[in-house]
């Protein structure tokens, strides 16, 4: 087939030539025909007129022939064409003899001759003949031919070149567009192949060759379905979807080496009528699938352990309950809370803690992978990893499907506790952690996801109270204690909003001088008009809910303002000791809070002592050293409360920036009767003095205890022997009655 541009050019040129020739020929032809017809008509009319006149003349002068000839000659000569003898007129008788003639016979190739008879039946009859030369028509035809040729040439040029110019531009544009399309087809990043209605491949680009691992020649003519893994799709196998313009679907492309590549296929239609074909655009979506997988991992899985996260766990649990409801089985839910994890995290660092969590996750998966319970194997989840989820922190959840009865969950709980209790080897450290497990089962304990999770959580909380390595199965009785705790939490929040907390103060007495050296600040909660609660009744709820931070900040600020009031009243030597919980000490804003309270009240920093428990010290690790040093740099004194009841390392004690050790009331209480208590108390006091620290005995109830402690060298004491903790107003009255540093008048801060 010739090039479309050449073919179009040939057609237009031929058409222009035909039109030009027609115009060139038509003009002289029309002039000639028109002139000829005009002459013929004129000659016919003229000959008829002359014949009539001749007949009348002949009839009137029939006697004088000579006169007739002259008269007829004059008549014939009337209005003879003055074109140089181009017209010749004559009269001939019945025998054909010319009687009269006017003009010159035309000497031309083209002559028009017309005649008319006269005198029929008379003595004188004949005919009048008029001949006219058509030379002037030839001249006009030549002129018309020249004009027509000029016009035809103009028309030819106009038709042959002006349309061709636009058409060539259009053709060039179309050619360029086709070339671009071809280049786009050839060099597109996505694989592209064209195919006919029989699904035979007609063309393929470079990306398609690379995608399928075959060259173009090997792909041409091949059935389209052989290039894809279509075993699982009837629509693809039947071929119907391949012929639907605009259809798009995902499938796996089959490479020459047998590997499968996930692709997205879009079907389009190109061309019209006989040249129509279909094009498949094939995009490799491996990276997109990887991105979707990464996104799914990010959204649904814990980034550290790669276990399902809390949200995905709820979805998995919901699916498990749906299957159990449909089949009529049981689902066990185990909540695992690790013990001693915070100790590991704070003492060995977060990196070790993270690796420990990953090791626990793997061990849980291994344990559940080998665990057996009645009914297991009927269906189960898609993979064993889905059985274990991390809810956050050191809490894990285990989903057990196909339980024959709740007892199967208890069996698994024992196996898990045993597995978690075995030592872990992390970066050269042998770490032993335990756990507490709460158990709840569907449909025995709850009939939907939210209630089942709550039941397992309540059971876990109870197991934690029972001690490390224990598990507990949910029972309705747990709801009672839980409701009481929720009620306590609500009352605490109302108390915080209504300023129902108050401070009591217990004087600290010097053993040597028997004077008040300072006061210990103690928190009280006025829960109702006649119900004053001590910290053991509500402190754990404050810490669990996070309210301890707000309450603790209030305690420090209020105590500092009160001490400032006493200093302004003349008791400048008084100090105060504030107990700080582990939660407060681990908060990064503690130093800032203390600094602000001291600055607002205007007291000296060394008048403030923060007391932290030995348990706080043992579980806070390296971070506490930084906080303690910052407080000491500020000038605040630090005391270690309840020393001797924990398991603090004595080697690290000398590194701590402490000012005092407090002998716990557990040893003070048995000083008189118990030799071991006296030995421990003496050891604590001697150790403190050897480290340059002061000692304070807590809970001194009688004078015998005071005398023993004084003999041991204890510096200060506090307890019921002197006075119980009391309000600021009562403390003022007590100090004024007893006498202290400076003047007896004190300023109270409400």
Give your account of this protein's structure.
By secondary structure, the chain is of the alpha+beta class. It folds into 4 domains: 4-139, Beta-Lactamase (2-Layer Sandwich), CATH 3.30.450; 188-290, 2-Layer Sandwich (Beta-Lactamase), CATH 3.30.450; 303-475, Reverse transcriptase/Diguanylate cyclase domain (Alpha-Beta Plaits, 2-Layer Sandwich); 489-738, EAL domain (TIM Barrel, Alpha-Beta Barrel), CATH 3.20.20.450. An 8-stranded mixed β-barrel has the order 18-19-21-22-23-24-25-26, surrounded by 4 helices. Helix 9 packs antiparallel against helix 10 (350-370), helix 10 (350-370) crosses helix 11 and helix 14 (539-545) packs across helix 15.
CATH topology grouping of the largest domain: TIM Barrel
Q: What would CATH call the homologous superfamily of the largest domain?
A: EAL domain
Q: Estimate what percentage of residues fall within beta strands.
A: 15-25%
Mean pLDDT: 81
Quaternary structure state of the chains depicted: single chain
CATH architecture of the largest domain: Alpha-Beta Barrel
Unreliable segments (pLDDT under 50, ≥5 consecutive)? Answer: 373-386, 740-750
What is the first-to-last residue Cα distance? 107 Å
What order do the strands of the largest sheet run in, or round the barrel if closed? 18-19-21-22-23-24-25-26
CATH top level label of the largest domain: Alpha Beta
Structural class: alpha+beta
Relative helix content? 40-55%
Total strands = 26
Outline type: rod-shaped
Radius of gyration: 61 Å
- How is the biggest beta sheet arranged? 8 strands, mixed, barrel
Count of helical stretches: 23
Number of domains: 4
């Amino acid at each position: 087939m010739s090039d479309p541009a050449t073919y179009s050019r040939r057609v237009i040129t031929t058409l222009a030539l035909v039109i030009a020739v027609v115009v060139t020929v038509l003009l002289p032809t029309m002039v000639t025909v028109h002139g000829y017809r005009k002459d013929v008509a004129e000659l016919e009319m003229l000959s008829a007129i002359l014949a009539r006149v001749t007949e009348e003349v002949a009839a009137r002068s029939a006697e004088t022939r000579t006169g007739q000839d002259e008269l007829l000659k004059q008549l014939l000569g009337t209005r003879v064409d003055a074109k140089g003898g181009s017209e010749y007129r004559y009269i001939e008788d019945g025998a054909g003899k010319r009687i009269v003639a006017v003009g010159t016979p035309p000497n031309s190739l083209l002559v028009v001759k017309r005649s008319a008879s006269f005198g029929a039946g008379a003595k004188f009859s004949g005919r009048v003949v008029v001949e006219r030369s058509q030379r002037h028509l030839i001249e006009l035809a030549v002129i018309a031919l020249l004009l027509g040729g000029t016009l035809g040439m103009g028309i030819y040029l106009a038709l042959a070149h002006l349309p061709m110019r636009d058409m060539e531009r259009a053709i060039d544009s179309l050619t360029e567009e086709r070339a671009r399309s071809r280049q786009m087809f050839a060099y597109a990043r996505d694989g592209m192949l064209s195919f006919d209605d029989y699904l035979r491949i007609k063309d393929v680009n470079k990306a398609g060759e690379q995608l399928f691992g075959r060259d173009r020649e090997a792909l041409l003519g091949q059935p389209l379905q052989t290039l894809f893994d279509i075993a699982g799709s009837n629509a693809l196998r039947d071929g119907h979807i391949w012929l639907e313009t605009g259809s798009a679907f995902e499938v796996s492309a089959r490479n020459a080496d047998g590997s499968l590549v996930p692709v997205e296929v879009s079907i389009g239609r190109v061309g019209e009528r006989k040249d129509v074909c279909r094009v498949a655009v094939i995009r490799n979506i491996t990276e997109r699938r990887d991105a979707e997988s990464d996104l799914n991992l990010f959204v649904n899985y814990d980034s550290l352990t790669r276990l399902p996260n809390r949200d995905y766990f709820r979805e998995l649990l919901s699916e498990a309950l749906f299957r159990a409801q449909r089949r009529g089985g049981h689902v066990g839910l185990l909540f695992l809370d690790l013990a001693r994890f915070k100790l590991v995290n704070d003492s060995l660092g977060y990196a070790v803690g993270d690796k420990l969590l990953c090791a626990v996750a793997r061990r849980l998966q291994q344990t559940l992978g080998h665990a057996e319970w009645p009914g297991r194997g009927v269906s189960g989840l898609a993979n064993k990893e889905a059985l274990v989820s991390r809810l956050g922190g050191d809490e894990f959840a285990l989903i057990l499907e196909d339980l024959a009865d709740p007892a199967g969950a208890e069996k698994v709980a024992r196996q898990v506790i045993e597995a978690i209790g075995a030592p872990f080897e992390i970066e050269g450290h042998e770490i032993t952690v335990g756990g507490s497990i709460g158990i709840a089962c569907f449909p025995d304990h709850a009939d939907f996801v939210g209630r089942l999770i709550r039941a397992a959580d309540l059971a876990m909380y109870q197991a934690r109270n029972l001690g490390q390595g224990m598990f507990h199965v949910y029972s309705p009785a747990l709801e009672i204690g839980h409701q009481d705790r929720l009620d306590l939490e609500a009352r605490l929040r109302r108390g915080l909003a209504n300023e129902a907390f108050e401070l009591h103060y217990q004087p600290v007495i010097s053993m040597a001088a028997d004077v008040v050296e300072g006061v210990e600040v103690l928190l009280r909660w006025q829960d109702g008009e006649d119900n004053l609660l001590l910290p053991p009744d509500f402190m754990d709820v404050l810490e669990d809910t996070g309210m301890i931070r707000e309450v603790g900040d209030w305690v420090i600020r209020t105590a500092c303002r009160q001490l400032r009031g006493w200093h302004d009243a003349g008791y400048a030597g008084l100090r105060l000791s504030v107990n700080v919980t582990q939660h407060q000490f681990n908060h990064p804003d503690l130093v800032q809070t203390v600094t602000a309270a001291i600055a607002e009240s205007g007291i000296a920093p060394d008048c403030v002592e923060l007391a932290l428990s030995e348990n706080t010290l043992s579980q806070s690790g390296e971070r506490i050293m930084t906080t303690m040093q910052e407080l000491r740099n500020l000038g605040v004194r630090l005391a270690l409360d309840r020393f001797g009841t924990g398991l603090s390392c004595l080697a690290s004690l000398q590194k701590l920036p402490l000012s005092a050790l407090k002998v716990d009331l557990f040893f003070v209480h048995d000083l008189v009767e118990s030799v071991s208590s006296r030995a421990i108390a003496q050891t604590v006091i001697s150790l403190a003095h050897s480290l340059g620290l002061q000692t304070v005995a807590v809970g001194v109830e009688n004078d015998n205890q005071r005398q023993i402690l004084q003999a041991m060298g204890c510096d200060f004491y506090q307890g019921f022997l002197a006075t119980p903790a009391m309000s600021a107003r009562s403390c003022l009255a007590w100090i004024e009655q007893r006498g202290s540093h400076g003047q007896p008048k004190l300023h109270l801060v409400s």
